[in-house]
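Continuing the series of single-chain predictions for the mutant panel. This is the parent chain; the variants come on the following pages.
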Amino acid sequence: GSPGDVYENPASDFVYHFLGDSNRLHLGEDQHVLFRPHEVSLSRHELEDHHAAEVRDIRPLGATTRVTLKVEGQSELIEAEVVKDHDSLTGLARGETLFFKPKVWQ
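Parent structure:
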């Protein structure tokens, strides 16, 4: 397929990770969802289908900010990248709880 097809619909988890930054959210026995850092909705409030996570790091990157999240019971960290003035970032500090949802579920 075209490069766009391979990026959007990779043949395996290996290819997905190979083609750029990615997250894996474990959903239960042998189930997970893969998504990119820019494919995350963030909220300061608990919302339907959102997962709670502890803020581990906040890194401004110019027009965007990358937030590292720790989900309880999962060793792999989640990286979320949002515009620098996103509502969820106002006054955000390490150790706080954010709620996230992979946009692949929207």
